[in-house]
Amino acid sequence: MSMFNVLVVGQTGCGKSSVVNMLAGESRAPTSHDLSHCTKHWAEYAIPVDGHSFQVFDTIGFLEPGLDTKGYTEAIADTYLAIDTLRQRGGIDLLLYCVRDEEIEKMKGHYRLFHEVFCDEEVPVALVVTSRGISHKVYKAIFRSHKIACVDYVCANIASTPGRSNSAADTESQKAIKELLVKCCDAGPNPRSTLQQLWRRVQKLVGTDQSHRSLKRNEVSALLTRRCKMQQEVVEQLLTALNLQSPSSRLHRAPYAGGKSATRNLPSSENDASTRDEQVSDARPR
């Protein structure tokens, strides 16, 4: 059976961990309802869905850098550790971006950070729009206007406070999210035009395909400022958090796995802390 690697990202309080729990059908990932126990490091969960085996990576939620620059850079750096771990296991099958309805218009920079800087641009992106109730609003035009390419999206009912949920809506949301994962992982990467596919094949034949290459420090810096629209002060702090201080430092991007990721039983979030800390240390960029 193929193992599908899914990376879940999003801002603090957007419902990432609640989405993971919906997929699992039980409470496994700590949520922001209890700030003392919410996700403080990336964590992975093995979750079977409709005959598919998913390894779901829940990451730290991040605030806007202007609100807490240190916390922001640490959260992004920890997310990169999860991405680099996935790179070493063969890549990522799906980037699942969770976003609150009211945050969609401000997500472009972070979408580019994860999709373009940290991952190969062929890694499929799917969106889970979280809100208090199921919404039938059409978001495609909004995503298109902000140049956010996704293979698909769903709206999910994520209760804003503990104990206030609608069981019917929750069941519908759970079904929609599960169907989204299966559909996206079965479909593969974002479709390219015939010309783009031909050009990629030519590059691979002549050995100049650089889509999976690592990025030098100055390249990362340029992408963060130009594409992600980060302030230079935030960029410098993030580069430090990513251990990219010297000009020769490189950041390794995770490729699309294509359902062919390694299925080694590496330490997971459910193992003891000391073993997991060693795994995290090994994942740091060199």
Helix-strand makeup class: alpha/beta
The residue-averaged pLDDT reads: 79
According to DSSP, the number of beta strands is 8
Range of strand content:
15-25%
- Put simply, the count of helices is 9
**Percent helix among the residues?**
25-40%
Task: Give the N-terminus to C-terminus distance in angstroms.
Answer: 33 Å
Helix-strand pattern, N to C? EHEEHEHEHEHHEHHEH
Poorly predicted runs of 5 or more residues: 160-164, 264-286
Largest sheet: 6 strands, mixed
Tell me the strand order in the biggest sheet.
Answer: 2-3-1-4-5-6
What is the radius of gyration?
18 Å
Gross geometry: globular
Description:
The chain is of the alpha/beta class and 286 residues long. Helices cover 38% and strands 16% of the residues. It has helices at residues 16-24, 69-88, 108-118, 140-145, 167-187, 194-206, 217-226, 232-241, 273-282; strands at 3-9, 43-49, 52-58, 94-100, 125-131, 152-157, 215-216, 250-251. Residues 6-110 form the G domain. Keywords: Hydrolase.
List keywords for this structure.
286 residues; GTP binding; globular; alpha/beta; disordered C terminus; two-stranded antiparallel ribbon; six-stranded mixed sheet; 9 helices
